[in-house]
Structures are given as structure tokens and as C-alpha cells.
Amino acid sequence: MTSLSPQSSPASSPRPSSPSSPQSSLSRIRVGSAPDSWGVWFPDDPRQVPWRRFLDEVSASGYEWIELGPYGYLPTDPAVLRDETARRGLTVSAGTVFTGLHRGPDVWESTWAHVSDIAALTQAMGASHLVVIPAFWRDDKTGEVLEDSTLTPAQWRHLTTQTERLAHEVRERYGLRIVVHPHADTHIDSEENVVRFLDAADSSLVSLCLDTGHYAYCGGDSVKLIETYGERIGYLHLKQVDPAILARVRAEEMPFGPAVAKGVMCEPPSGVPALEPVLAAAQKLDVDLFAIVEQDMYPCEPDKPLPIAQRTRAFLRSCGA
């Protein structure tokens, strides 16, 4: 998922499966989807499907878990949203926030004003995760460079200490666990930067939302990361990249937004990384994990997401999820 605007222990057990069902092989994985898979990046955009259609179609695709998406896309009144999700058999797994914490204490008040509204809605919906995405160093539409793509040592210290502060406050005030999402065109992207961040941040406060697509986009190996830092993996986003388009993106130094418009994030199982070994590695952690499908498709035709979502859900069932 990407946007320049605002956004558990699972609340209930997954549906039981028969002994012969492959679903039992990934019994600790809770699969869901998100507005991102319907081309939703912003709270309000005429090129996006209406929120009721998203809820109808994600339910029709066989998913039971969803994320909130950009804050304001789905209703922000908890009573309304609880009614709309419950009657479609849907439960919220997490909210999402965008932060620029490497900029230090000066941005704390504006960050908290953004985070607190989303955290309150996330808590009210019974979820217990908040996905935290770092700020972009270049505009994901225009490609305008907004700041240096490499952080200074002081900025790294700000990033880790302010993220720890955010994790503490969110946990104390809302009972939520933050999971930091490595993302293309941010400062937490490549294996080097992800590992640097994990090694610096307090493991009792800060976990990772491993997005398999973004990590592959930035050259990382998701299975290796799970096997090496398994205790820090608190949440998964399932996504694949098209290697041929990615090669062009890298050659042209294309910003993330135009890369998505070119189709760099593709329908599984046609891209990389292969999701079966990722899910198998996650299952071996022997903890309950959400695995939320996020196929970036902004912008897209309104009739495109539903059949992709249905095929993707069927594919994941074939993997045992």
C-alpha cells in the first residue's frame, strides 16, 4: 500500500478445516485483503471504487479480514463501520499510519495528531495492530526528490527512538502493537536498511510488517529475513513483483507510483517472491500471523480487482492458507 495521506492478536479463530484440507498446514496464518488490492490509495479519489463496493467484493472473494486503508476511505464512525463489516462477515486486522519520524521530536505533535485518530478507530474495531509506513524520500507520483535518500546517523537515531516512543504511546493509550512496514522509496527499504533498523530498535516495542513485494522490489529475500529475524516479524503483507517490469523500473530509476501504474506489482503466482516458501517459513515461527494481500494497482479500472482477488484467494487456498 502507498499513499501520502492517513490509516493483533486476531479477534477470533479461523474457520475449522477438515483433516484432509490443505488449509490446516498453515493453521497459524490468517489471510485477508485490503483496500489497496482494489486500487485505493487515498481517502477520496474519483478513480477509486466506492467503499461499499470494496466491502461487498472483498467479502465475495472469500476474505474475512481487512485493513482500514487510508483514513477516511471507510467510515470513521466505529458504529457505522462495525455494522457495515459485520453484515458482510468481515473483521478489521489493522489500521495504517504514515510517519516521518526520522525528522526528530519536532514532528511528534503533528505525527501524534494523525496517529491518534487512526489508532482510536483501529482499537474500536477490535484490531490490535497498527501498520507504520515511513515517509517517502521522493514523491511517489511526480518523482520529485523531497529529501536525501540516505539518512544521516542523527536521523537514524531519530527514526529508532521516535518509533520506540510511538510504539510505547500507542500501546499504552490504545492497546495496539505497531508493525513497521519497509516500503519502496522510503528509508527503510533494502535488506541493509531493514536490518539496521531492526538491530537498533527495541525488540520489545518494535516489530516488522514484512511486505514481500516491497522487500523483493528493493532486493530483499523474505524467507531469509523470516528465518533470521523471525521473532521480529509481527505481520505480513503478501505481494509479488514482475521481474521484467522491475528491471525496467530500476534501469530508469522510476518512482514507485509510476512503477505501480506500469504493473510492477503483479497477480500471484506470476511474480516473485514465490509465496509458498514465505508462508511455510512464517508457519514455522509457530505464532499467529496475519497475512494481508496487497496488490498495488492504483489507478485501475473498477471491474479489474474482483476477479484478481477471487483468483488470488483460490491460489492461497491451494498453498494451504
From TrEMBL:
| Annotated ranges, domain Xylose isomerase-like TIM barrel | 55-318
Molecular function GO terms recorded: isomerase activity
What Pfam families does the database record attribute to this sequence?
AP_endonuc_2
| Keyword line | Isomerase
Which intervals carry biased composition (Low complexity)?
Answer: 1-28
Q: Where is this region: Disordered?
A: 1-31
Under PANTHER family, the record lists: HYDROXYPYRUVATE ISOMERASE, INOSOSE DEHYDRATASE
- The protein's name in its UniProt record: Sugar phosphate isomerase/epimerase family protein
Which species is listed as the source?
Streptomyces sp. R21
